[in-house]
Specification:
Blueprint lengths: L3 E5 L1 E2 L3 E2 L2 H13 L4 E9 L4 E6 L4 E6 L5 E4 L12 H13 L8 H6 L5 H4 L8 E4 L5 H5 L5 E6 L9 E4 L2 H10 L6 E5 L8 E7 L2 E8 L18 E3 L3 H14 L5 E6 L5 E5 L9 E2 L5 E3 L4 H20 L1
Parallel strand pairs: 1-4, 1-7
Antiparallel strand pairs: 2-3, 4-5, 5-6, 8-11, 9-10, 9-11, 12-13, 12-15, 13-14, 15-16, 17-18
Length: about 325
């Protein structure tokens, strides 16, 4: 069997950048002792040749992604990323897609959903009211459709980067656009007041729900639900209605990814869909790098990912 290749960000000499990546690999290794390779985006050339760390040999080797049994993309950059340039990775994703390589979260998912434009392209789904913004937008016209408080964020961004809540005021919005011009274009969204109750993250493997996580802000007026702003994460058990809404959104979006996440508020507004490489949330750490959350099902993650490997290979034969 050819190796399973993980593509993302890695330290040199080899180590994982993120504990959740390490826990995923360790969980998979407990299921089967396959040969795993790890390849950093920075080390892949236009022919998909790369220097990869081989777990069996314990050293770097020359490898071509075309020779992988299956691939798993752990991270891709946004335009604001510093580890590797967005402009380097996009052509590589296009090459991977053109070669039809067997990837659990295929390159098409990143290319088709590389930003948050889906929030205004699918009006039939329960997203917050959302409109596109750039330096040429008619701010008076656009902002007249929103209430007193609004959310501003880059069209392409993650982790709460440059997300701000401001008063609905043309000058304030123009100042935001000018101050963050290099991160544009942007979105303006309605502010959802129930966000302070938390964000429900529902994880789907091959369109089937596997687990949920609740992220609750530490402070009453906090509107970010990223880990640094939240209480310790909690396992969440969604209702049938929540699952119905999330699965309908996944099937409407028609992503071919085997691994997806739907984030919802308590009023069941969908505030984000991550259809390419959603974070697993199987571990969280505090500012002193101490674990403060482990859900207890991290050992199952490996089994679930091997089911995705099998499904990906089966689809490849069709």
């Amino acid at each position: 069997m050819n190796p399973i290749t993980f593509i993302g960000y890695f330290k040199k000499p080899f180590d994982f950048c993120y504990m959740s990546d390490k826990m995923l690999v360790e969980s998979m290794q407990k299921c089967k002792r396959n040969n795993f390779l790890y390849c950093d985006w920075n080390d892949i050339n236009s022919g998909l040749e790369c220097n990869a760390f081989d777990t069996n040999k314990g050293r770097m080797i020359n490898h071509n992604l075309k020779d992988s049994e299956v691939g798993i993309i752990l991270e891709v950059p946004t335009r604001a990323s510093t580890h590797v340039k967005f402009e380097k990775v996009m052509p590589l994703l296009e090459k991977i897609a053109s070669e039809r390589l067997p990837i659990i979260n295929p390159a098409e998912s990143f290319l088709n959903f590389s930003d948050k434009s889906y929030m205004f392209k699918f009006p039939e789904l329960p997203f917050p009211k959302t409109e596109y913004l750039d330096q040429n937008s008619n701010l008076s016209r656009i902002l007249s459709n929103f209430d007193k408080e609004i959310i501003l964020k880059p069209l392409d961004g993650d982790g709460g980067y440059k997300v701000e809540k401001v008063q609905n005021n043309v000058e304030l919005v123009r100042n935001y656009l000018n101050s963050n011009a290099s991160d544009g274009p942007f979105l303006v969204q309605e502010f959802l007041k129930d966000i302070n109750l938390g964000e429900k993250s529902l994880f789907f493997f091959n369109k089937e729900f596997k687990y949920g996580i609740l992220k609750r802000p530490k402070e009453e007026k906090e509107f970010h639900c990223n880990e640094g702003y939240c209480f310790p994460l909690e396992e969440y058990f969604p209702s049938n209605e929540e699952l119905k809404i999330a699965k309908n959104a996944l099937f409407t979006m028609k992503s071919h990814s085997m691994f997806e996440r739907v984030d919802m508020t308590h009023s069941n507004k969908i505030i984000e869909m991550t259809l390419d490489c959603p974070g697993l949330y199987i571990i969280a750490t505090d500012n002193n790098n101490r674990d403060y959350y482990r859900p207890g099902f991290e050992d199952k993650i490996g089994k679930w990912f091997y089911e995705l490997v099998d499904a990906t290979l089966l689809n490849q034969k069709k």
